[in-house]
Fold this protein.
Amino acid sequence: MDLEKIEGLVKIIENSSLKQFTYKDDGVKITMSKLDNPPVVTGGAAFAQPFQTVSGLQEKSAEGAEEEEKLFITSPIVGTFYSASAPDIPAYVRVGDRVKRGQTVCILEAMKLMNEIQCEWDCEIEAILVSNEQKVEYGQPLFRVKRL
């Protein structure tokens, strides 16, 4: 697992309501937790970060932070994620697929209504961040994408 993937996981957890997250891949296990009440550093120093990142990572400028946010397709509602319109039909998108603006990438069910989620820009799917039939929160990242 490379540093870029770890950094991506940290950003996803920071922007979600999850309190703890564990990731396992090829013998590597990473567990991340948020602090409920971040410690306060006194003596003129800034507040400590509620979620600690890997030391040595470079801070991004405000422009870089805005661009980083656009690298995820997020859930516009609270609901249940479905990768396809039916269990026996292939998923709308898979990792590596190139997606055009307006193309459906998944369905979110909310209050028995099926909502098709469409991509806002041309991109390539780099990762699917939720599993089929998983409950998702408003603003939760669903896909990590690379803009074309």
Observations:
- Residues 3-14 form the longest helix (12 residues).
